[in-house]
Amino acid sequence: MSEVPEFPSLSATREAFFRDGIVRLGRTVEESLLEQLRERSEAMMGGETPELGLFFQHDSDDGTYGSLPRGEGYVGPSQRYRKVEKLERDPLFRALITHPVHETIVRAFIDGPVHIYRTVLFNKAPGSSSPIPWHQDGGTFWGLSEEPFLQLWTALDDAPVEAGCVEAIAGSHARGLATPLGGVIPDDVQARANAASRAVCFPAKAGESLLIHNHVWHRSGANHTAMPRRAVTVCYMHARVKCLRKKRAPRVFPLVFPG
């Protein structure tokens, strides 16, 4: 399967999503909101929103995924944080999460009240970002009563191939998780699946969105351009999904679309 086309209708989008695990949605967000979100992203990484209690992970010094800092959180003003989470606490990002276009899309897949597992800003700083290897979003590491399957990825900046656009293997979600834990797919499993030769690139313009199945194999490269490459991914799920962790109090997931 060399390419996955756009699907303008919801019924066709559903069909393509469950077949391929990834679908182009075209532009879903207006430029005025994008401008505000880009400015807000810079403010967050610059340390201007401590009251929100966001989660941060800085990029590695050597540009490799294996060297990413763990457990350090916010380390001072920098535009090289690779990941910022808990964005639903911010009104502007909440507007993206609950955007009417996005609600229409989500409602085609999930009935009743809709919660979110997480909302993440993925930032690839100009010329110095680390790639993200083949992975799946789910598994026992997530600690949930059932597997979420729906995430909506939206580009805040243009995301061409050279800036580290999303790459995926269409249909790879059909086999379920490569490992019970989920996350990064082991090298030997990648080799047996000939993953590198099956990758399809999904370059996107600012404001365009992708619908991604949590279990589809996906990755992204480094940003080799002189411009930032920022995108937001939101994992939506049915309200019946519960947190199973026991070492700490179970998480309570934010409600975004009432039933």
CATH class: Mainly Beta
The value of Rg in angstroms is: 17 Å
Report the β-strand fraction as a percent range.
25-35%
Secondary-structure-based class equals: alpha+beta
Low-confidence stretches: 1-7
Biggest pleated-sheet summary: 8 strands, antiparallel
CATH architecture group name: Sandwich
Query: How many helical stretches?
Result: 6
CATH T-level topology = Jelly Rolls
Annotation, overall tally of beta strands: 13
In sequence order, what are the helices and strands, one letter per element?
Answer: HEHEEHHEEEEEHHEEEEE
* Number of structurally distinct domains: 1
Distance between the termini: 37 Å
Helical content, roughly?
10-25%
What value does the average pLDDT take? 94
Shape: globular
Q: Look at the structure and name the CATH superfamily.
A: q2cbj1_9rhob like domain
Structural notes for this entry:
This protein is α+β, with helices and mostly antiparallel strands. The protein has one domain: q2cbj1_9rhob like domain (Jelly Rolls, Sandwich). The chain has 6 helices and 13 strands. It has helices spanning 10-20, 31-45, 91-97, 100-107, 187-192, 195-198; strands at residues 22-27, 55-58, 81-85, 114-124, 132-136, 150-155, 166-168, 183-184, 200-202, 208-213, 218-220, 229-238, 255-257. Strands 1, 2, 3, 4, 6, 10, 12 and 13 form an 8-stranded antiparallel β-sheet that branches. The longest helix has 15 residues, at 31-45. Residues 1-7 have low confidence and may be disordered.
Helix-strand blueprint:
Layout lengths: L9 H11 L1 E6 L3 H15 L9 E4 L22 E5 L5 H7 L2 H8 L6 E11 L7 E5 L13 E6 L10 E3 L14 E2 L2 H6 L2 H4 L1 E3 L5 E6 L4 E3 L8 E10 L16 E3 L2
